[in-house]
Here is the input.
Amino acid sequence: MKNLGTQTSSIPPEWQPMARVFTALGDEHRQRILLLFEKGERLNVGQIAAVSTLARSTVSHHLKVLHESGVLGSEKIGKEVWFWIDRHWLEETLANVLAYVRQNC
Here is the structure.
């Protein structure tokens, strides 16, 4: 077993974004929201709420969590906020996990 020392009190800086991504993706409703996006597609709250069993306010909350974790990008155009999956961010974050597994497991 590795000596964890001070590692038990804090997560390495490169892992902090990863923790937010995993927390965001740990919710089944947020997973369903992500599955609505087709490659390169942008969706707004209304479009997602229209095909969801969730209230619009609940969809907005889940989109906020996904956005703050970096899973979704967004852009406000007029009165609408458009969301998309930030593929680059997810690939980079998940690559950190794979690198750790490859080096340490």
Remarks:
- The two ends are 12 Å apart (CA to CA).
- The chain has five helices and three strands.
- The first strand starts at residue 43 and ends at 44.
